[in-house]
Amino acid sequence: MRIYVPVTLEELATAVVSRNATRWDLGARPAHAVTAALVAALPDEDTEGHEYAAFLMAADDSLALVAAGDGAPLRVVLSLDVPDDAVEVGGPTDGAPSGVTVTRDLPGVRVEAVHADEPEAAADVLAVLAAVDADDDEALGEAVERVTDRDLLWYDPSEVHAVPRP
Fold first, then answer.
1. What is the DSSP string of the chain?
2. pTM, to two decimals
3. How far apart (Å, rounded) are the C-alpha atoms in residues 150 and 39?
4. What are 8-55's pLDDT values in tens digits?
5. What is the pLDDT of residue 123?
6. How far apart are CA 158 and CA 162, in angstroms?
7. How far apart are CA 8 and CA 62, in angstroms?
8. In the structure, what pLDDT confidence band is assigned to residue 126 with cuts at 50, 70 and 90?
9. Per-residue pLDDT, 94
10. Is 155 within 8 Å of 77 (Cβ atoms)?
């Protein structure tokens, strides 16, 4: 099953790059995938549209991870293929129709793609964090819109350690 895992830039440091693949130790955690609920919620979309929707929901969760930590203020999503029996539909993803939970540790999962904000997005991500701290709903809405209007950049898995930082 293809899953989209929201992560932080700091978590990328543990990825191991070899000539044949980039591997990452995936622990039990929330993620996103194309689920029956997502397909039902977006009946007019094709498979690619469903995958993109799940990916965008993972990007939103990555923003929440950044807000909860003190690392680099950029969203990051890893695309991974994992065994179906390692994933349960649902979990702590705020009711997102693409929400899944990785139920066990999966060491050495092959990274299929890395997606990250460009370094210039850091100012917008920091504006989201400042609006949350100030409890300013209007500023928060504007800042979130600026962040979500940005596309995450695609990186080949071999470039995982070369993702630019602010």
1. -EEEEEE-HHHHTT-EE-SS-EEEEEPSEEEE---HHHHHH-TT--HHHHHHHHHHHHHHHHHHHHHHSSS-S--EEEEEE--GGGEEE-STTTT-TTEEEE-S-EEEEEEEEEEE--GGGHHHHHHHHHHHHHT-HHHHHHHHHHHHTSPPEEE-GGGGGG----
2. 0.92
3. 24
4. 999 999 999 999 999 999 999 999 999 999 999 999 999 999 999 999
5. 94
6. 9
7. 7
8. very high
9. 66
10. no
How many angstroms separate the CA atoms of 76 and 35, rounded?
Answer: 21
76-81/2-7 β-pairing:
antiparallel
pLDDT at 87: 97
Sign of the CA dihedral with 30 first, then 35, 36, and 37 last: positive
The residue length of the chain stands at 166
Going from N- to C-terminal start, the domains of the chain cover 2-119
Does residue 91 carry a pLDDT above 80?
A: no
Instruction: Name the amino acid, one letter, at 153.
Output: L
